[in-house]
Structures are given as structure tokens and as C-alpha cells.
Inverse folding.
């Protein structure tokens, strides 16, 4: 029997990449999964197959988590389908590579909307449900090493992740008395679709690998394993912390 047997996890942006990997891992630990996506449904359907293959139940919910009304509907559907939820993984994220001087307002609003506004309001909707039931819970934000580490060309992304770090720290204090823990996972360079351009640029990839002490990119499984731990009773006394999954990158990195 898995560590999360009988529990329910809502995972935003779980149609691909890290979110999909976390869905698969939590399902293998016994959790039923609310799979969220915003664009094409093929990836979410693939995630559902993985969840069911692991012996768990899943539902697919299309929702733009940067919109508060959609967020409330997403959380409501978890309760309608499963009767409750125990775990929230704020995973959905976007980025745009542009210099600070060329950054556009619409890009700023989209990145802040998905990376910071969404975790704020998804968490609020989730916690309101838990508080009404006087029930504990686990919240895990997929942040980035760039909540702390500068990344020229990605000022808005870094600002959104820095905001997510402070939000997590604040909510640790506010939600602790409710028995709800909240932590950030900060991945470094992970082999996912969002890094497709990097993966296809061998000189750039090789230069990055030289700055990762463990000498390889991370995998979605590396991140998912930590998410499963933080979601479990093994992590019952852990809250208000950021955990780096970066192969040592943030301790060694410098701009070329």
C-alpha cells in the first residue's frame, strides 16, 4: 500500500513535463489525481492513462489557472468527483526569454498570472475547502532555482518565482495553525518540453552541464520523488521551506 493511499491530489499543469511526472508518481503511491491542463488535451489524456495504469483514479479538468473563476471551478470539481482533496501541487508555469528593456506588458501579465496569481488563488480555494471541513492538507509549489538565482533575460519569470518563495513563507505561518503544510520545490535544469530549445543546442547544453556538479540534467522523476515525500506523512513536520532539485547548479552557476 502506498504512502498516499486513499488521498486526492490536485495538480495544475499536469498534461506534460514535471506535472505529468508528479501525477504518475503520486498515483503510484495510491493517490487519486485531478489532472489540469489549459491548451491541448492530448497530454492530459496521456497523464490519465498513466494514473490509471498505476491503479489510481483520475479526472481531467481544463482550466486556465490564471483566472480566479476557473480556479474555483477546478477545486470544486475535485470535491464533486472525490468528495474531498488532500494535496495541492501548484505546478503550472510559463516563461518568456526577453531582455528587460524589450519586455512587453502582455508577457508580464501572463507570466505573473500563471506563476504567481494562480498559486495564490488555487491555494486560497483549496484551503477554504479544507478549513470548512477542519481538515489538514499539503501544498507543494513547483518553483525554480530562479526564486533566488538571477537569470538575465527572464526578469519577469524570476520576479514571479521570488514572489512564490515569499508567498510560501508567509502562508507557512498563516496555515500552520490549520494543520496545513506548504513547501516549494525549486528545480534546476530538468529535461522537459519547456527546455526543448536547450536540449537541441549541444554547445549550450554542454556549457550548462559543466556547471552542474552532478554532471547531468535532472529528470521529472527526480522532482516527483521529492513531491511524493512532501505530500506524505513522512514530511508532516516540514513546512515553510524550499528544496532545490538542481544537481548542485545553484551552488556553482555563473553566467558565461
Amino acid at each position: 500500500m502506498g504512502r498516499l493511499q486513499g488521498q486526492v491530489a490536485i495538480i495544475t499543469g499536469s498534461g506534460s513535463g514535471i506535472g505529468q511526472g508528479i501525477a504518475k508518481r503520486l498515483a503510484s503511491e495510491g493517490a487519486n489525481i485531478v489532472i489540469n491542463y489549459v491548451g491541448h488535451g492530448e497530454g492530459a489524456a496521456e497523464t490519465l492513462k498513466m494514473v490509471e495504469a498505476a491503479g489510481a483514479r483520475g479526472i481531467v479538468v481544463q482550466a486556465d489557472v490564471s483566472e480566479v473563476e476557473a480556479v474555483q471551478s477546478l477545486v470544486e470539481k475535485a470535491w464533486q468527483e472525490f468528495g474531498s482533496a488532500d494535496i495541492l501541487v501548484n505546478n503550472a508555469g510559463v516563461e518568456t526569454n526577453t531582455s528587460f528593456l524589450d519586455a512587453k506588458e502582455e508577457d508580464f501579465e501572463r507570466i505573473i498570472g500563471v506563476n504567481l496569481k494562480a498559486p495564490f488563488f488555487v491555494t486560497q480555494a483549496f484551503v477554504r475547502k479544507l478549513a470548512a471541513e477542519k481538515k489538514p492538507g499539503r501544498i507543494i509549489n513547483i518553483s525554480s532555482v530562479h526564486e533566488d538565482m538571477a537569470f538575465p533575460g527572464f526578469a519577469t519569470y524570476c520576479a514571479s518565482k521570488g514572489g512564490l518563495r515569499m508567498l510560501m513563507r508567509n502562508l507557512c505561518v498563516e496555515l500552520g495553525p490549520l494543520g496545513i503544510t506548504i513547501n516549494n520545490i525549486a528545480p534546476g535544469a530538468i529535461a522537459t518540453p519547456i527546455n526543448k530549445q536547450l536540449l537541441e543546442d549541444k554547445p549550450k547544453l554542454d556549457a550548462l552541464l559543466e556547471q552542474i556538479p552532478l554532471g547531468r540534467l535532472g529528470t521529472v522523476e527526480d522532482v516527483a520523488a521529492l513531491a511524493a515525500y512532501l505530500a506524505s506523512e513522512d514530511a508532516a513536520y516540514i513546512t515553510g521551506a524550499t528544496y532545490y532539485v538542481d544537481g548542485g547548479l545553484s551552488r556553482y552557476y555563473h553566467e558565461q
Q: What stands out?
A: Residues 105-133 form the longest helix (29 residues). The chain has one domain: 8-252. Strands lie at 8-11, 32-37, 58-62, 87-90, 137-142, 180-187, 242-245. The first strand starts at residue 8 and ends at 11.
